[in-house]
Amino acid sequence: MAIKYSELVIEHFKNPHNVGTIDNPDAEATEGSPACGDQLTVYLKVDPETQKIEDIKFQSYGCASNIATASIITDLALGKSIEEAKKITWKQASEELGGLPPVKMHCSVLAVDALRSAIKDWEKKNLGKQFDESLTKKNVEKALQKVIYGKVGVDIISLKLVKYIGIDDENNVVIELAIGKDDSFLDDVKHEIMERMEKFDNIGSVKIALV
Ligand code: FES
Fold first, then answer.
1. For residue 15, with 0-12 CB atoms within 10 Å meaning exposed, 13-18 middle and 19 or more buried, which class applies?
2. Residues 45-65: pLDDT tens digits?
């Protein structure tokens, strides 16, 4: 079945805003989507006094939805302060575009992920901020907030599909999911969870159980 896109998505895909690179950017980040393997880079120029984003560009190797969401979030971020830009969400990006098909919501997650990572890069370099990315329940939950259940286009934490997260002394992780074993989206969710868990240093085994 053909996927239906809003007119705005098609418009931003055909004529994306803020495409390209920035020479000597103040910050940049590349993120890949564990769901599809596509990549996106965001470049920032930030006024050190006001901490406002003076310029922002992106390069996408993703699909139409990804290009459209990157176009809209870079529009939203331009001229905003770092603090304001941090608050841009993938739900907001999708709403601004008149909605995305549920199976394409992860493309919006990728765009916002790259923006947030570029902001983190700026904060590390300019404010000396450190980010705790260790294997804790909180960080596992944060990572799972980016895993979209494609049937409805919402993340598995908001949908309360994650019933339990356990980490033992040897960094083995157990995640219990309330998704039916015959659900056609189960394999995608499992695959993406595994990919997201691999990003934690020193992680042991990962077991996904169904409850
Ligand atoms: Fe990969 Fe959309 S399918 S970014």
1. exposed
2. 999 999 999 999 999 999 999
